[in-house]
Write a structure and sequence with these properties.
The protein has 249 residues and is of the alpha/beta class. The chain has a single domain, classed as Spore Coat Polysaccharide Biosynthesis Protein SpsA, Chain A, CATH 3.90.550. The protein has helices spanning 18-26, 46-54, 70-82, 104-115, 141-146, 164-168, 188-200, 222-225, 227-239, and strands at residues 5-11, 33-39, 60-64, 89-92, 98-99, 119-121, 124-127, 160-163, 204-206, 212-215. The strands form 2 sheets. The chain has a 7-stranded mixed β-sheet, with helices on both faces. Strands 5-10-7 form a 3-stranded mixed β-sheet. β2 (33-39), α2 and β3 (60-64) form a beta-alpha-beta unit. The longest helix is centred in the first third of the chain and has 13 residues, at 70-82. The chain is globular and about 50 Å long.
Length: 249
Amino acid sequence: MDNKFIIITPFYNVEEWVKYCLRSVSKQEYKNYSHYLIDDLSTDSSTEIIESEASQNQKIKLIKNTTKKYALKNISDTLEEINPADEDIIVILDGDDWLAATDVLEKLNKIYNDEDCWMTYGSYVEFPSKIKGKFAKQIPEHIINNNSYRESPWMSSHLRTFKYKLWKNIDKNDFVSEQTGNFIKAAWDLAFVFPMLEMSGKKAHYVKNILYVYNRQNPLNEDKVDHSHQLSEETEVRAKKKYQLREKL
């Protein structure tokens, strides 16, 4: 089965790296995909670079914001606008990062077909150190069985992919910070991954192979900009009500 992949890339001021991001997707051997890039009011030449690349690849779609939204709201608004099919697979790729090889989508397509999963997580390597990322580990069975993801160390990092029907079953109010009344800004990945893991249980598949390059050179990485705020939001997300395991969606 040829699954449809929808790659979502929110970005801000990534002119130094966005070509790597774009070309890592364009060079994929598996071609059943669309790539949406959302400009969050960049002040550099990021959009010009993307427009140039898009002229050679019709699968690239550039969205330009008129207000600042940050990553999670950019992802949410884009998915609402394009309204994917339930079985479409969403891939989250940051604008300063890139896919690790030309067969990433091919591997993911095989995993979704063979494993009957609803989502995948892992694995990544950091750039430029080439060290395998410590936040992409297989979740132990006791955490899955006890639905204790929020009480356990974070281990469900890049590459994050999921079927759209899983996203649809998240209450979008859980994306909003009670502290600010706005979409969660810094711990945004936890805000949707925890609910997905809780609903999926053993239908969340860990990928041991390196699929993703996480760029640690960018000074705008969340943990570098305001680490205390990131930790505060993480605490808030972990305290939110858990989702129940779903038999079906």
